[in-house]
Amino acid sequence: MSQINEFFTGNLCRCTGYRPILDGYRSFTNDQTCGKRNCCRLKKADSDTEIMANGCIDTASSNGATENRSSEEFLIDQDLYNINHFSPYDPSQDVIFPPELKVLHHELHTQSLEYKGPRVTYYRPTSLSHLLNLKSLYPDAKLVVGNTELGVEVKFKNQLYPVLISPTHIKELTSVVVSQSGIVVGSSVTLSTLEEKLRDLIESQPEYKTRIFSAIVEMLRWFAGKQIRNVGAIGGNIMTGSPISDLNPLLMAAGAKLSLCSQERGYREVEMDEHFFTGYRKNIVLADEILVSVHIPYTREDEYFLGFKQARRRDDDIAIVNAGMKVSFRSNDAVVNSLRMAFGGMAPTTVMATKTMRELAGKHWNSSLLETGTSLLLQDLPLSPSAPGGMIEYRRALTVSFFFKFYLSVREQHSVKFPELIAPLSAEEQGVVQIYHHPPPKSCQLFQKISSSQDPIDPIGRPMCHSSALKQATGEALYVDDMPHFSKELYAGLVLSTRAHARIISIDESEALRLEGVERFFCSKDLPGSRNETGAIVHDEEVFASKIVTCVGQLIGLIVAKDQSIAQRAAKLVRIKYEDIQPLVITIQEAIVEKAYLNQWTIKKGETESAFKAADHVLEGDMHMGGQEHFYLETNAHLAVPKGEDGEMEIFSSCQNPTETQKLVAKALGVPENRVVCHVKRMGGGFGGKETRTSSISIPLCVAASALNRPVRIMLDRDEDMVMTGTRHPFYARWKVGFSSKGLLSAIEMDLYANSGCSLDLSAAVIQRAMFSMDNAYKCDNTRVTGYACKTNLASNTAFRGFGGPQGMLFAEDVMTRIAAFLKIDPNMVREKNLYASGDKTHYNQLLERCTIRRCWDEVLQQADYDTRKGTVEKFNREHKYRKRGLSVIPVKFGISFTAHFLNQAGALVLVYTDGSVLLSHGGTEMGQGLHTKMIQVAARTLKISADQIHISETATDKVPNTSPTAASASSDLNGMAVLNACEKILRRLKPYISKDPDGSWENWVKAAYFDRVSLSATGFYRTPGISDFDFGRNEGTPFNYFSYGAAVTEVEIDCLTGDHSVLRSDIMMDVGESLNPAIDIGQIEGAFMQGLGLFTLEELRYSPTGVLLTRGPGAYKIPGFQDIPSEFNVSLLRGAPNPRAVFSSKAVGEPPLFLAASVFFGIRQAVEAARASYALNPCFRFDSPATAERIRMSCQDFITAKIEPAELGDQKPWSVTV
């Protein structure tokens, strides 16, 4: 399983939460158990005991009840799938390397190759002499092995390298030789091969000789993913000279020797020291020289070596700061003979702390050396307050933290050798030197068993496989860009604004149009008047910016060409002149100063002023919560196909809102909506990001297709998608709360400011949802909340899973946490005292019925063994100074419905064919969440047929018109009821034939009806009853149909010296009513939790002061990976809690669980609070989201942070700003 974990590092998946993927692949390993120490698979089972999908034996216990029923009535199940149903292993079906290529293997690998293109020539020499000759002829040629760096430069930095040389088939550059003094590694040796060779030496040589090798192998664990290490080479890492290279600090600290060679001068040897790098990505290697090999030395008994790295995400991430450190002692004592320390991330190059190295030589390895070294390091490694990468104080603190860890680690090892000279580490110091190892994941998923009396073909409540799962797993599932190309099809390239607020002076497309293969350039001149106006709710945007741009990434023009590469290349040739406009508003704080508000709203209940006066205590505080990039796996993809007559247009789109796409395309084309059909087969993720912002790409695409009368396709690159389409709204809150000495709420006032970006989009509804959610699960009779939509010069922010709810709820939990810190009591006591109950009214006066929040709370505490573990965490924190743990419990209450009343409707179309097969269409779109699967289940139960007889092909506006977006977690509720309605119509028509032939088959009844000329198609419709628009002025209305509830307990551990954190365990209890499909619902819960974990801990959007998104693409923007899932991850569905207000008593599940990941955030906050307590610091402190490593470390103030001078900007501009 450890190999599976390693291979998946570097693979990103937004949807599943990773655990199901690992569980699926566990069946290929030789340790297929649930991972728990007392796993029942390890016990002897009876022969008739069924082994469950996660490796456990079904024990059929129970976990709770409704308010008036016994928990024993509801048995649990954990069989999400049955491994006994898998196909047996057949080795003949293994994927093999094509034999015909093996036959040619030797011949191909001994040939020199040369490829000539119109702009680039590629050489693959097979001898060193040939390589040197090529480098002599083309001194500026780039040597490329894995293309892991060069590809980025060509793609994102617009670099063109006319000559590329691949040195992968040259013996001298691919060999590994072990010598008396160390190991000589060819510069083209891949990192995976290097790791393998070093591991062999570590196993065969004495420990003291391989300390450098061990440090390199340890660093390679965190160096990119396995796939990158398989192709990236050690020479490329050195020669590209990245200032945050993971290997260069180690090689410099080790004193590695480089063998260089040129055709004219032959060989020379240089040392990697402080003189090797001469500037940003520059070194002393001459233009006609090549790096042949690297000599990495052994260590001696009196030498110690370690590497360090801190990144935003532990696995597969570039470093914030990294280091290599080596110390040599004089024989038989603890006096430093020499010290080498190299750091990355502290300058434009990897640098050595030369002054510190000199001054510490000759000193004893004791606390005095540590103190002196700390001060010297800070002098050696200054950072400008405006340095690229930002995080100035944090990066400086990391250098000292690494040195402190090195000091303790060496002291620990050297004290074994010289116990009389060096004191051993204390218990709390030993925690500092521990090397992190990700434990094998373990998990459990529990849900309610279906009744034994349920019809075997009735799929409701069963963990039925996702209808597209097999196609997606094999790559057969088709997405927009997989569609076959049409005849005469063209490709579009985007011309985007590079300024955040400017007047367009001129646009010159002439150079782009001269490029062969370019068909035409489109801009605002091609879309006159109101046809160029667009927008989600109000038309406050332009399809093409005409006179003024209001954000970086705004569409100015569209190049249409014969293929993608030409279109994108031509788009970069369009020249635009700007004139900047003031004010430039980027951040919420700037918007507040400028009073730049699109709108504002207030909800008020009770009398807050009098309640504050009567309160025992009043606290005030504020908090900022960052935005979040959707990072769906499939970027925006669209294909516009003109029909050639009557202005008809078909658009195949990856969007959540086909009806809105239809409307806006029709408006831009100047045709009625009935001339435009939008098709959505499936999406590779959406999360709200494809609800409205897709139209900014699909509309101009259709304009071009219509004008040229040719199909036009586009699929955005990741950086284009990120810069154009907006994010989750960043929020800032100011609050004031009154409460009793026991922690009971009496009054709260809160002002919410959302960074809406440059247009309204869905910001009004997002902010209103945040206002509705600012109570989370807590009752307060006196509340006033005001929300402001701040207009800024950023891409318009938009819908994202939770839709403002997570922001409002996070601020509520911040209030509860600070109350507890002020009163010096357990935060759980404050939360428990204020939980809602059935019969309570919210601050917007909606009555809570069938409120299960207390059940979820109590049962997750029991499931997580909270009381016992709380004591264990407290004991751990007493015993550890530099590592702390936190254990947090967070509830969630989430209202289900569109708050825009008119959207709470849905339609469906059921077509029954004479062979009995059923084609089902409904208004919802499939984005991986399993909506189509659930709709098939609803239809199968209603029609009383097998789910295998029902098929959903796509969502299309010519099948079901006027659809609502697939959003707000309401799609199963709305479309499920519409499907139910349509199927019931069919069933009523078949009733006479069923009565006439009760023992007949479905197929017989259908044929009988057909021959009797009975319609076998039906439309269904549903509108949610009992809800109404909310009146903010009167504080009345019923915005939600019902509420979903849940609770989570999470335990985390932080490294107080680096800010690193680990999620040790998460337990979730979620009320999903009577689950339509437990497998899909649990997958949704886990996926939402992991997306929330990213929101609250890892994912940080960074913008320049001029509004440029700095975190574009996976290299700079980090979502959680496989190694970020909780080490133990247990999910239970609340049993015995039917919901009468949705289809078959189910509940929505898409958005509510996301906020449960706030238990990770507040667990981290508790751990930070424990660290601060060690230094008697104020437990009431501001702790913004996300809880990045930087924020964690700098909140754990200590003797190191006290030495860091604040980064005063003066007249300089910061690298990034908090928006």
From TrEMBL:
Main localization is: other
Among InterPro entries, the record links this protein to: 2Fe-2S-bd_dom_sf (IPR036884), Ald_Oxase/Xan_DH_a/b (IPR000674), Ald_Oxase/Xan_DH_a/b_sf (IPR036856), Ald_Oxase/xanthine_DH-like (IPR016208), AldOxase/xan_DH_MoCoBD1 (IPR008274), AldOxase/xan_DH_MoCoBD2 (IPR046867), AldOxase/xan_DH_Mopterin-bd_sf (IPR037165), CO_DH_flav_C (IPR005107)
Q: Give the subcellular location.
A: Peroxisome
Question: Which coenzyme or cofactor does it need?
Answer: FAD; [2Fe-2S] cluster; Mo-molybdopterin
Entry binding sites for FAD: L143, V144, V145, G146, N147, T148, E149, L150, F223, D246, L291, K309
GO cellular component terms, A-Z: peroxisome
Report the co-factor binding details: Binds 2 [2Fe-2S] clusters.
Annotated GO MF terms: 2 iron, 2 sulfur cluster binding; FAD binding; iron ion binding; molybdenum ion binding; oxidoreductase activity
Catalytic center residues: E1151
- Where would I find the FAD-binding PCMH-type domain in this sequence? 115-301
Pfam families given in the database record: Ald_Xan_dh_C, CO_deh_flav_C, FAD_binding_5, MoCoBD_1, MoCoBD_2
Partners and quaternary state? Answer: Homodimer.
State the protein's name. Answer: FAD-binding PCMH-type domain-containing protein
